[in-house]
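Re: beginner question about structure tokens

> Can someone show what the tokenized structure looks like for a real chain? I only ever see the sequence side.

Sure, here's an example I had lying around. Input first:
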Amino acid sequence: MAEAVSSSRDCLQAGESCTNDPICSSKFRTLRQCIAGNGANKLGPDAKNQCRSTVTALLSSQLYGCKCKRGMKKEKHCLSVYWSIHHTLMEDALFTPGMNVLESSPYEPFIRGFDYVRLASITAGSENEVTQVNRCLDAAKACNVDEMCQRLRTEYVSFCIRRLARADTCNRSKCHKALRKFFDRVPPEYTHELLFCPCEDTACAERRRQTIVPACSYESKEKPNCLAPLDSCRENYVCRYVCAVGWVTWRASIQLSLGFFHWGQPSA
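And the corresponding structure tokens:
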């Protein structure tokens, strides 16, 4: 089972504490203006500097370093508190050499009791091995024996194959929610077997793919223009800055592959 590390401050509690502090509350309201659409423009010509100085002042408050938990009550509100103070830091990281935001996450870290030796044995599978054992079928049977695995797997399969009335697709939001619940709550010894069981034929591989990523979870009757989801992501501050982290990670991997240890500085 996953066990959350609870040493971090809760962003909801940190937000409430800040609200009760007149100085912190005032700066937090200013910060909210900075990230609310074009709110920074309302602060005058020095808006960007004022926003950054506000963030700097809040770095010593209880807001900095707070975290959220996946699936917690008021999770979206907790995330909004977290990103309120981190959005400027993320923007700076895109253009500031040496600034590290790759480990920045709104969620508390999880410690899982993974058996990596066992996981390696799942994925290894010698090509020359002659066996009649169907590991994927065994994984499905093992899941059906476990009450939680069977119940949550049945739930996401139900949501992800059920077609809506007058539509040629399922309820994608319910499908995504059920999939996340399955992989978050079911122990790794079951999910890893389903994810990494070796297949030797196309039919097995297709069944495994539908188990991991049901077609409903990503396919749609009308294919959107690639710019549409990008525009949608830009309108959501959480998506916007998670995307920024991904971009920084990609840029770092490219520079490392070229032999750069620091931003724009070749290794000796």
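Each token stands for a local structural state, so reading them left to right follows the chain. DSSP finds twelve helices and six strands in the chain.
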